[in-house]
Amino acid sequence: PTVSCELKLIMETAAEHERILREIESTDTNCIGPTLRSVYDGQEHGLFMDKLDVRIRNHDREIEKMCNHHFQGFVDSITELLKVRGEAQKLKVRTTNRRLQDDGKDELKQCRVQQRNIATTVDKLTYYPALLTLEQLEQTCLPRAGQYRFCSIMAENIPRLRTQIRDTAMTQLRDFLESIRKHSDKIGETAIKQVHAGHTATHVHALLTAQELVDFSPVYRCLHIYTVLGLREAFENYYRKQRRKQARLVLQPHSNMHETLEGYRRYFNQIVGFFVVEDHVLHTTQGLVNRAYVEELWELALSKIVAALRTHSSYCDDPDLVLDLKNLIVLFADTLQGYGFPVSQLFDMLLEMRDQYGEILLKRWNVTFRQVLDQDNYSPIPVSTEQEYRHYTSQFPQQDPELEKLPFPKKLPFSEFVPKVYCQLKEFIYACLKYSEDLHLSSTEVDDMIRKSTNLLLTRTLSHCLHYAIKKNVGLAELVQLIINTTHLEQSCHFLEEFISNITNVPPDTANATKLYGTSTFKDARHAAEAEIYTSLNAKIDQFLQLADYDWLAAVQGGGTLTASDYLVDLIAFLKSTFSVFTNLPGKVAQTACMSACKHISTCLMQLLLDPDVRQISLGALHQLNADVRECEGFARAGPVAGFQGDTLLLAFSDLRQLLELFTQWDWSTYLADYGKPTCKYLRVNPHTALVLLEKMRETSRKSNVFAQFRKTDRDRQKLIDAIIKQLRNLIAQHRA
Questions:
Q1: Pick from 365, 361, 364, 341: which is nearest to 353 by CA?
Q2: Given the DSSP bridges, would you call strands 381-383 and 410-412 parallel, antiparallel or unpaired?
Q3: Which parts of the sequence belong to the Exocyst complex subunit EXOC6/Sec15 C-terminal domain (predicted)?
Q4: DSSP tally for the chain: helices H, then strands E
Q5: Which helix (H) or strand (E) holds 133?
Q6: What is the rounded average pLDDT for all residues in the chain?
Q7: Are 479 and 532 in contact (CB under 8 A)?
Q8: Average pLDDT, stretch 598-623?
Q9: Which residue, 645, 539, 663, 649, is CA-closest to 606?
Q10: What's the pLDDT score for residue 134?
Q11: How confident is the model at residue 105 (pLDDT cuts 50, 70, 90)?
Q12: What is the pLDDT of residues 345-379, one digit of tens each?
């Protein structure tokens, strides 16, 4: 019976040890202290340690066997790959690699958990017996031994031994805190790489976890010892206080962080590393840190992170760096979100940065557009071959069936800046699209963002650049080409609409979709160029008119026909040459410019007649001016530009023509008799104008008759002029009343 009882006891002990070992192997946390207490409550501690050593050796053999098994498969696979290296491009290496790793992933993970738990068990078994022995000595053995001196000495030393164990554990904890401070950067970098690998659908080999980078056993050991000593709360407070201090240091960015992407990367790595460690401690200890504590830390961190990023990103004026920073923030946010931390504020801040990114893009494209416009030759593009023609039409959606039919060499109607500007508009749209990626936005939101940014580019940046080019290129030929260019760009706007829709998958006719303002931008630029043409043309006409040198006291020449003044002949030649270039202008621009030029000439010639500084005008001078007006009328009648009906262009000179005919024909009786009637021959002659000119002629007559006042014909002419002046004044007075 005694043997039977002993055998039964051995079997029960073995079964209990086996149960404990299975629990250690299957537990996925480090909180296995309570499990081990039963080992020391029994009397077979040595037997359990032997059994544990055996189990460790068995697992080591299993791990080695499994690794050898998979390693041989890996070696065989590599050997096969080497044999078919010539066909390597056709192999799906990535898929094979992932399958090889996936085959042993779960088993390796379970083995690592078991190995880790066993290591933690051994570590705790080292300290726990010492504390248990001290407790048994103090509470059980020493009181039974009586009042011996050695008992009192041992009783006095037990608190000191406890303090020594506690201090040793605390020293190791401080070393641990220093270790995780140093390793936060590496831990964070590893965690972010894992998320990046998921984003790019690639596999990153041998990425270590936080537990593999940092030895967490000191914190578990210290927690366990302080718990046994009844000091758990003090330990928790100390740990949290120290980690808060480290958090403040981690969250303080370097002053030059904004200068390079690496500065931002180090900042994010350290923060991720800090919270990955806290998350690990949260899930592997019972209450050392809790969810409320971690969330409080994260709220503090989030506000400081957002503030730091707002400040430092505002210094950046490089769109490429902003784009890289945005991608880094997305990885940072996705990494922490994977650990359960809320990151919506980070994505809100990224939307704020989108506006800053857009402004930086506008500045860069302003420089680009200026360079394109400054370097343009403002001449139609010559193409000699089909290849050249296709090169330009691939850059710009040119659709002209008539031009297609023409043989080579031929010319595209626009200059180089048209395809260059169009390509830059597309590049800007691509740059906007890059920022919107991975922001968890809907396709409609992305489409709206791109369209609004493109509208800013069109209405602000490109519009200003075009107006700058219009003011800078005061040459008429350049202005004509600018009008042609903006017309073609205006016609291409619907292609830009389609381009945006194709990359965002949002139809352009979607309800509430933002429309591009390209048409109005190019139309406004064209109108500005047209106005500049009219202004520039008139300025050029003024330069010719400044050469006019009329002899206002010239006598009437008898016989022959007067020829036009030299300055006017040159002016007409210039206008003919200029309007020959206007044939390619769209719409009625050429007609408007021609009519404007003729009206300006007529107005200037009229002003010469009425100039207050010209006090005397002879009939001979009027005859010369009449010859000049005939030259202008001949130009108008010849039709310098197409599109005018009949003698429409002659109307520009009708005021001057009727005034000169009235004076050269001296047809005052008709004028005075028919004034005010719709059928009046001199309907466009204003009586005020006629009076001013007649008074200048009277002054001329008076000066010339000083020494011939007794000639009857001159006296009669003087009296006639005075009479007409009197009648004109009466006429003006009557109509004023």
A1: 361
A2: antiparallel
A3: 345-696
A4: 28, 2
A5: helix 93-136
A6: 83
A7: yes
A8: 94
A9: 663
A10: 65
A11: low
A12: 999 999 999 999 999 999 999 999 999 999 999 99
